[in-house]
Amino acid sequence: MTTITEAVPETRSFEADVAKLLHLMVHSVYSDKDVFLRELISNAADACEKLRYEGLSNASLLGEDGQPRITVTLDPDNRRFTIEDNGIGMSEEELADALGTIARSGTKAFMDKIAGAREAEGSHLIGQFGVGFYSAFMVADQVEVISRRAGADTAASWSSDGLGTYTIQPVDSADAPGRGTRVLLHLKEEASSYTESFTIERTIKTQSGHVPVPIFLKDRPDAEPKQIADGAALWTRPKTEVTAEEYKDFYRSAAGQFDEPALTLHYHAEGLHEYSVLAFVPETKPFDLFDPDRAGRMKLYVRRVFITDDAQILPRYLRFVRGLVDSNDLPLNVSREMIQESPVLAAIQKGISNRVLSELDKLTTGDTERYLKIWDNFGPVLKEGLYEDYTRREALLGLARFKTTAPGSEWRSLKDYEAGLKENQTAIYYATGTDLDRLAASPQLEGFRARGIEVLLLTDQVDSFWVTSGLDYEGKPFKSVTQGLADLSLIPLADGEQPAVAASDAVNGFIAFVKETLGDAVSDVRVSDRLIESAACLVAPEHGMDRQLEKLLAGAGRLDTAAKPVLEINPHHALVEKLSAVDGSDEVIRADAAHLLFDEARIADGELPVDPRAFSARLMRLLERGIG
């Protein structure tokens, strides 16, 4: 513990709106109290960087202690937290100026001093001392700062409870750092966890493990310091100098994963904006992949200082990507929690998103097996972009892979699909459902299969949305096989046979009877050219909602009334032909047949009969008639 000298302390009031700022810092600006640690380490690293710069022209400032460092000391017995640096330090006047006001913070004055002359050096400075510092009062009810300016013989202390005034006075040299600043926090009772070694080490490694100054930790005042950060950021090193093992270790630490990265992106962007990126695509699905918030997990750093992990660096459909971006251009000030509104960040977001998609595209041809594993894990998430990101639809369609009705196929691209288009085929056909095997056996596919027309089998919930968003591929629209007219008459059968002749008058008469009998249960009953083996099926009206999408919305309570389906009947099915020949005087049997055809089509679609009891009675009557 530090000892204040007998000099008379001077009590001053904070200037301007510092008192309001203190209240704002505690209750509004920062939602995560851990941020105080980031701010204090940022300030300490800033002080070391200032000394490094001034030492270029005045080497005597460095003395015999030229290696910068930051030391965090914990005192659980007295509920105290101390952070000390051997940076540039502050005089008594500078303490009052930096910690008693807002507008004239130490860093701002320093950056103004070197603006223009040494812009490259200044761009690497961290923080704006005098702003984020006040976040310490989120966890402390008393804060003491003792500092000695580099090259000075005297030292001074600053102390406040954050309630409107602060005290400043000289201190004995023996009680002050040889050079630099010591910040002592008297922690609030509810903040006692900040004296736990594990908590502090984990937080520092997460938030500030890559500031350009080594960080040491003492778990007790009399303990030996343990280095927990070496001051070197992995992402700032050239790719050629980073081993696969180092990438894996960093990935596991940053992403909280225990697998290995399926794809690593490490690059430095220059030009209008300068930033570094180190990102990974996991080998397995993260546990929070389908979290309702769909939040991204890319961390944002500014000049190697952690800012936030919820800046939404990547669009939500790339939320499986883990890693960080480190910008040299973004401001590091009190608005850092709202930094995502910056136009600089918007440009960075665009650049990184495009780069991730580009790297995935390279895998589609360079390492197909690895890409298909990635698609297997994250395809449903990537397809969200087809619905949400109009500007990148073309790239996402190129990445998309599908299960289809093509024989012997696993994953098929739209390029593969296009290569197999049939003569007179004007659309890309798809079917949506929840079970791949059941979907492949759908009666609506029979006419397409007979003509060798490939159909995309879409089983992810998002599929029902993106296919209805009006997109196309190479001029070919996406068309559901369960919606509207199939319009297959212009495409010949695969075996070379001619399509069956038109329905007979008797069949047409029976279809008209079915339509009259079902009434409002259907919107229409018509002849089908999509059925080959089955007697009947249900489809959505031409301008109605796809039936699978309708089911999803109804299940989520977002659909008040469903559209009436269309019942399509195969006019050449043996059962239909026999029913058409039933004597018109047997109205009960004909009516039962009409309802049973409708219910059978519902069952084939994975639905229950409209009235299970009536369905059972009708079925029994037909069975009795057949046996009799």
What does this entry look like structurally?
With 628 residues, the protein is of the alpha+beta class. The protein folds into four domains: 10-229, Histidine kinase-like ATPase, C-terminal domain (Heat Shock Protein 90, 2-Layer Sandwich), CATH 3.30.565.10; 234-371, Ribosomal Protein S5, domain 2, CATH 3.30.230.80; 393-480, Rossmann fold (3-Layer(aba) Sandwich), CATH 3.40.50.11260; 505-627, Four Helix Bundle (Hemerythrin (Met), subunit A) (Up-down Bundle). Helices cover 34% and strands 19% of the residues. Strands 1-6-5-4-7-3-2-8-9 form a nine-stranded mixed sheet. A hairpin with a 2-residue loop joins strand 18 and strand 19. Residues 1-5 and 103-130 have low confidence and may be disordered.
- Morphology call: elongated
* Tally of domains: 4
| Strands, count | 22
| Oligomer state of the chains in this structure | single chain
Q: Mean pLDDT score, rounded? A: 85
Q: How does the SSE layout of this entry go?
A:
Elements: E1 10-13, H1 18-29, H2 35-57, E2 70-75, E3 80-85, H3 92-100, H4 106-114, H5 119-122, E4 140-148, E5 155-160, E6 165-171, E7 180-187, H6 197-208, E8 215-218, E9 226-229, H7 244-255, E10 261-269, E11 275-282, E12 297-302, E13 305-308, E14 322-327, H8 343-366, H9 368-382, H10 384-388, H11 393-399, E15 403-404, H12 414-419, E16 428-432, H13 436-440, H14 446-450, E17 455-458, H15 463-466, E18 472-473, E19 476-480, H16 505-518, E20 524-527, E21 536-539, H17 547-555, E22 566-569, H18 574-580, H19 587-604, H20 612-627
Parallel strand pairs: 2-8, 12-14, 16-17, 16-19, 20-22
Antiparallel strand pairs: 1-6, 2-3, 3-7, 4-5, 4-7, 5-6, 8-9, 10-11, 11-14, 12-13, 15-17, 18-19, 21-22
